[in-house]
Every structure is written in C-alpha cells, then in structure tokens.
C-alpha cells in the first residue's frame, strides 16, 4: 500500500468507528491501477502451473472474482477468473484457454475464499473445477453489518476510502484479446477484497454478528448445485399475457427452438429471438413465414434468416392434440399470494400481519434487511400453515425445515411464537 492509500484507509476507519457503518467518510482516493501493475493473462498450462505453485506457497485468504458474458454468450460460463493472495499477488486466468482449474482448487483446498456476492460467481467457478470449502462474502457481510449500499464499489469507498474504476462490468468478456483497460478493471476488483473482508470482520465482531455471518457463509459454501429448472420456458417475459393452452404450446416450442439455436451458436438467446417476439407470436400465430415476417421481432435481418425454423415450431404447437398441450396454469407450491389471504383465511392473514410487523421492527433494531433476518417465504409458509402445537420447539423445527440458520431461529423465534399464538 502507498502512504496515501494507508492515510485514506485510516481516515475512513476512524469515521466508520465514530459514526457507524452508514457514515460518510472523506472523499475517496481514486485507485487507478493495481499496486504491482496489471498482470499478464494466464493462458497456458505452463503458466497455470506457475500460478498454482505460487498460490499454494502463499498465505492467508484468497480473493476471487469472475467475469462472465451475460447478454452476449449462451449460459453463464466464466471468461476471466481473478485471484489475489498475500505472497502471490494478483493473477488473471483465461478459463477458455485453461478450462480445467482443478489443480488450483486443490492448492486452495483449505483456504478461505473472499468473494463479493458469492452466489453470482460460484456456479461459473464450479464449471472450472473450483469450489470453496470456506468463504467470506463481503456483500452479505455488508448487509448484515447494516450498510445501505453493498455494491463492491460503494463498499470499498465507504469502508476503505478508495474509489474503483467503473464501466466494464457489463462488457462482453468473451472478447479476445481482452483490452488492457478491462484487464486493469478486473485486477482492481480483487485488489482490496481481502482488506475489505478484514474491515468487515472487525465491524461484525463489534456488532456481535460475526457468528451470524459465519453461519451464512457456511450455508452458501455447503449448498449443493441447484437442480435443473423445470419448464424453464415458463419464465419467458410477458407470459402473463398468454392465457390459452395452445398459446402456451407456441411459447414452449419457440423457446425450445431458440434455445437450441443459441446453444449451437454460443450466443445469448435474447440475441437470437426476443421474449417479446415469442409472446407476440403465441398471441397471434402466423399461418406462414410471410405472416410471421410481419410480426414484431421477426422482420429484422437475424430473425428472417430463421423464419422457416420458427414457423416449423409454431406448426408443431398448432398440430398438438389437446392431451399434448401444456397445462394452462403452473401448479403453485406453497401458500397463495398474501393479498388473497384476508378472503381465504382471515386468521392466517392476521398471523402474517403480526409476524411481518414484529420481524420488520426487529430488523430495524439490528440494522439489517429483514430478508436477511428471515426469508419472507419462510414467514409466509409458517403463518399459512402453522404447526398444530404452536410451541417454541415446534415452530423452531418448522424454521429449520425451511433452511433457517440457528442465529435466525434465535433472533426470530420469540417474535414468531408471539405472532402465531396471539392471533390464533
């Protein structure tokens, strides 16, 4: 660290200690380049082996980040992986040239990873063979500590007193070669991540929340990969307009055809055919490619090239028997929307109102978002169908079955017991 950087950090730390995590510190110091310069991209087996040796010999937590090409490429694979560890410095790895990072994972097997918004990067890192056993999520730590803004740039400014370069997070990271300004931006994303982790650990310890954070981090690290989504075509934007089963079939067939094209071409599905075009076609199924070309979203150059393929998908949907059509309404799981509770079950509505009020007030006292104190879905499910015996033990068991962590149960159990028993 330079002397100027250390001074900025000391001033900001003093302001935070005096005024709390939401305090405004002095003007941030722009961080324009990594302290050791921007490293070359690791893009060969020999270079990766050197990185593995260096990181295995280094000490302390490892800062980890990944850049994807969301909106440009199919899927959510990583196109750049950034790491930094004391004694090894910063490295930038090209996971296209080096797709198997298992050796790096093994070198860091017992090391704590520091990530910002870990759940966003873990899926694409898992594809490379990198899975943490221990982690510290600086975004989640910021939420638990009561920071109003928890983006990486805002946290680095408020906690450490530096301002990071902005502007490349939504870039097409599949671009090769990657421009130097993008690489500098990527390196800076892990430059201060461990410093931020240390400052937040101190803040959480002072607030008595460090054990809570550890339980949250453990839950993230131990969570299995999510199963494949059932009927992903139902998430097409604008589906609320599609009410007939035959129209649903058109959406399904077009979505499936688009997904096959996008996967084959390695391009974002939205760049192949927009959701709005799919819904419009479902509402007004064309009789032939000429009619289809007149629909919004199909007359552009990229759409015209595949009009025959899209028309075949529509024709398949129109030819299905009634038994082959998708169900009109996806069967919901869990309780109905809360707005209907007053009519369906007034007692449940009263329980929910009381529980929400108590949870909201306690979250304010703890200076954290109420969804981090306990998930709204957990509260809804408990209030809609409470245990027959609303004892603390029974309610605690229900909370555990919904995935609530011990600290969450400890903080919310008295509130939920009160809401369920006084409104029963």
Could you explain how this protein is built, in words?
The protein has 424 residues and is of the alpha/beta class. It folds into three domains: 220 residues, 2-Layer Sandwich (Nucleotidyltransferase, domain 5); 93 residues, HRDC domain (DNA polymerase, domain 1, Orthogonal Bundle); 85 residues, DNA polymerase, domain 1, CATH 1.10.150. Helices cover 53% and strands 8% of the residues. The strands form two sheets. A six-stranded mixed β-sheet has the order 2-5-4-3-6-7, sandwiched between helices. A two-stranded parallel sheet has the order 1-8. α10 runs antiparallel to α12 and α20 packs across α21. It is flat, with a radius of gyration of 26 Å. The relative contact order is 0.09. One of its GO terms (biological process) is nucleobase-containing compound metabolic process. One of its GO terms (molecular function) is 3'-5' exonuclease activity.
* Category by helix and strand content: alpha/beta
Strand order of the largest sheet: 2-5-4-3-6-7
Measured on Cα atoms, how large is the radius of gyration? Answer: 26 Å
CATH architecture of the largest domain: 2-Layer Sandwich
Distance between the termini: 60 Å
Give the H and E element order. HEEHEEEHEHEHHEHHHHHHHHHHHHHHH
- Envelope shape: flat
